[in-house]
Design brief:
It is built from ten helices and 16 strands. The chain has 339 residues and is an alpha/beta fold. The strands form three sheets. Strands 8-9-10-7-11-12-13-14 form an eight-stranded mixed β-sheet, with helices on one face. Strands 3-2-1-4-5-6 form a six-stranded parallel β-sheet, with helices on both faces. A two-stranded antiparallel sheet has the order 15-16. Helix 6 crosses helix 8 and helix 8 packs across helix 10. The longest helix is centred in the C-terminal third of the chain and has 19 residues. The protein binds nicotinamide-adenine-dinucleotide (NAD). The site of nicotinamide-adenine-dinucleotide (NAD) has 23 residues, from helix 1.
């Protein structure tokens, strides 16, 4: 069988840093195009791949391909995903699929058969650590009753000497709090591992500096149908960050998922055991995600997963928390507390 022709659209941090290496490693992929509106990004990506992969400034200039990976910001992504689906390609689209469910459904107002050709980049659902955690929860290894889950998601240290990063995070906050940008992955892990959606009960927000377009430390509490309580925290853009980790506390055992490595530590009456999976978390998950995508495309699967609906559900949960925390008034103004 011939290789699957794939183009990569969006040659920024995650496009070049994670998708491009995964595409180059995959034995059944023929990378036939690199697309970005930014000429410097196109040149940079082209220099990383041997064999002269052609570059394009627009998806519209790209010759027909079996599949497209879209790794652009969420305010651009749905338009490009729609165009790629209408051109007849399968699409692996980065999360979040848009900045809101309303935008996503307005722009991707397409027949179900086309939407089923889209896989959402809920990358870490493919990781063996998430699968192991789900198995432990399902088998009652943590206990048979409700759990307490603490998700502490911290990223994007503020470095005053890195003007590019300061500008990127500043602009990204204009489109939503860290809950919107980080939430898709986390809410997807939670509903996938716990087997149900949680309902947002309350929320809080802190702006650690004036002038931020959205609060940078935010959180909420979700109640799951079986009584499990989930306390989520998302934090960006402080000079130092607390650990990024998820803890699942049950009557019989506690499990800690290290947010950086995805090492799993389970502690119970008999002691502590740490499970480490082969390879580094990011390349491992991107390889597995791409492999699931390519295998589905080659097998002619009728519905790719994580599906468009999974992406919308994860976005809806992030958006609900983001909306609530953005309604919270700024608490710091020029160093003075506002009342
Ligand atoms: N799956 C993950 O683990 C993961 C990790 C990081 C980021 N992301 C997501 O990936 C997306 C991209 O993030 P990033 O950090 O790489 O952003 P980035 O800003 O570094 O890169 C985005 C790229 O898209 C290009 N672009 C913008 N409009 C375009 C258009 N119309 N046509 C072609 N190219 C266009 C930009 O020029 C830029 O090169 C975001 O939605 C982000 O949430 C996912």
């Amino acid at each position: 069988m011939a290789k699957t022709t794939v183009a990569l659209v969006g040659l920024g941090a995650i496009g070049v840093g994670a998708h491009l290496p995964a595409l180059r490693r995959h034995p059944d992929v023929d990378l036939t195009g690199l697309v970005d509106v930014d000429a410097a990004r196109r040149d940079h990506a082209a220099a990383l791949v041997s064999g002269g992969v052609p570059t394009f400034a627009s998806l519209d200039d790209l010759p027909a391909v079996d599949a497209v990976v879209v790794a652009t910001p969420p305010w651009v992504t749905p338009v490009l995903a729609r165009r790629a689906l209408e051109r007849g390609s399968h699409v692996l689209v980065e999360k979040p699929v848009a900045t809101s469910v309303a935008e996503a459904t307005r722009i991707l107002d397409l027949p179900r058969e086309l939407l089923d050709r889209l896989q959402v980049g809920l990358t870490y659902r493919h990781d063996p650590a998430i699968a192991q955690l789900k198995t432990w929860v399902e088998q009652g290894r943590l206990g048979s009753g409700p759990l307490l889950v603490r998700a502490h998601i911290y990223d994007e240290v503020r470095d005053e000497s890195d003007a590019t990063h300061l500008a990127l995070i500043g602009a990204t906050l204009e489109h939503g709090s860290p809950a919107l940008h980080e939430g898709s992955h986390v809410f997807d892990w939670l509903s996938h591992v716990l087997g149900a959606e949680g309902r947002l009960e309350d929320s809080w927000a802190v702006r650690t500096a004036p002038g931020l377009a959205a609060p940078n430390l935010v959180g909420g509490r979700l109640l799951h149908p079986n009584g499990t309580q989930v306390l989520v925290e998302f934090g960006w853009f402080t000079a130092a960050l607390p650990p990024c980790e998820l803890t699942f506390v049950g009557d019989a055992a506690t499990v800690r998922l290290d947010g950086r490595t995805f090492d799993l530590t389970i502690t119970d009456h008999d002691g502590e055991d740490t499970v480490r999976f082969e390879g580094e978390r990011v390349p491992r998950s991107f390889d597995r995600q791409l492999d699931a995508f390519v295998r589905s495309v080659r097998a002619g699967s009728r519905r790719l997963t994580p599906s468009w609906d999974d992406g919308l559900r994860a976005l809806a949960a992030s958006e609900a928390l983001d909306r609530r925390v953005r309604e919270t008034p700024a608490t710091v103004d020029g160093g003075r507390w506002e009342r």
